[in-house]
Amino acid sequence: MKTDVKLTSMVKTSGCAAKLPPEKLHRVIDNLPLMKSDKLLEGFESADDALVYSVTDDIVSVQTVDFFPPMVDDPFIFGEIAAANALSDVYAMGGEPAVAMNLLCFPSCLELDVMDKILRGGIQKVKEAGAVIAGGHTIADPTPKYGLCVTGYMKKNDVWSNSGAEVGDVVVLTKALGVGIVNTAAKGGEASQESIDAAVDSMTRLNREARDKARKYTVHAATDVTGFSLAGHSQECASGSGVTIEFDMGSIPVIEGALELARFGLIPEGRYTNEDYLFDKVRFEEGIPQEMIDLAYDPQTSGGLLLFMPEADARAFADEMDRPYCKVVGRVVPKADRDVIFKA
Amino acid sequence: MELDCRGLSCPEPVIKTKRAIADKPESIEVLVDQRAPLENVSRFLKAMKYNVTAEELDGEWKIKATK
Fold first, then answer.
1. What percent of chain B has pLDDT over 70?
2. CB pairs under 8 A between A and B
3. Where are the domains of chain B?
4. B32 Cβ under 8 Å from any chain A Cβ
5. How far, rounded to the nearest angstrom, does the alpha carbon of residue A19 sit from its chain's CA centroid?
6. Quick check: bond before B11 cis, omega within 30?
7. Does residue A16 carry a catalytic annotation?
8. CA angle A138, A142, A146 (to 5 degrees)
């Protein structure tokens, strides 16, 4: 049995960067028979991560599943991050998580104490979310992976879709970008403790506060920023809403040290696969530094919410959040030559 | 000096290259077989003030860096 093993040394790609590239995924799911039901309100076709299913005339369930390999070596923190990330899909629909189940792939060569800590990290975050966790499924697997299947309930009319952005809305991002870059650097032993702490603080943070506060305002569309990066997740919203999203590069919050690490080539492979599928849908204005482009394509693990709101609501929400990582970062404009445009 | 980083995933190629240039050689060649290490190793060597070019041969790249 291995007692002092680095979790990240057992994986090739970590966190949301381990997602299968979307162009490969779509080659398969676009050809699958689409199951229809009057009760299935959101499914595959809207590119939402969660599904919405009618329970009664005005109550729906929001269901999601998310799991990935570790991006940190501490098993408890890995459990917290994986749980915060899975719970986020419900928050991104405007919902409140109610019940969660564990999904765990665990190497037979590891001490059971490591499993205990991963699951305790998950319990901690589910508790913080005000939900309950019970049961689950465990598979012996050489690469550790953990996550949750989460269900939330909400009023049908309260669901935030990812395709309702309106021209004139402004865009609020509720977490800083750059955790993919910092995680990659940390794996190589190149990230400062300050950067690692900032990334862990961000990844373990629930999107609950952002969701709870945003509920008081008008939200036309929402999503969370994970493996497909800010560019990819905003492109899904823009395409689904029939609009273009403009970001002001200078206003995007950044994890401490991430830009410097990107300058030295400490960049996850997912940044390039994101660019490969998005390059003809996204445009960067002249003069944007290379490392800011890296940031826009950086796969995020347990990233923030991206909220599309009327301007007054967005400003009031950002003021109420009053967090350095929560900023108004762009606006929605009529459909232009690209779905997403990054301005210098 | 030549460094073989084929088959390695990020950030290993950058870390290996960093170790290889610890003694500040005048030039180094790094062999990679994927786009991410091609970009990342080139980026790293440029940040370390090398002049960098890359040559493609059969789906592999030879990154050449000189002072």
1. 100
2. 51
3. 2-66
4. no
5. 11
6. yes
7. yes
8. 45
Given 3.30.110.40, 3.40.980.10, 3.30.160.390, 3.90.190.20, which CATH number is that of B2-66?
3.30.110.40
Domains, chain A, in order of start with CATH, read 7-158 (3.30.1330.10), 170-343 (3.90.650.10)
CA distance B22 to chain A (A): 15
Question: pTM of the predicted model, to two decimals?
Answer: 0.93
Whether the pLDDT of residue A262 is over 90: the answer is yes
Q: How far is B38 from chain A (nearest CA, A)?
A: 10
Cβ of residue A185 closer than 8 Å to a chain B Cβ = yes
Interatomic CA distance for residues A239 and A223, integer angstroms: 13
Quote the pLDDT of residue A248: 98
CA–CA gap between residue A217 and residue A232 (Å, rounded): 25
Kindly tell me if the per-residue pLDDT of A1 is higher than 60. no
ipTM summary value: 0.94
Query: DSSP code of A46?
Result: G
Chain B contact for A292 (CB, 8 A cutoff): no
Predicted confidence (pLDDT) per residue in A209-253, tens digit: 999 999 999 999 999 999 999 999 999 999 999 999 999 999 999
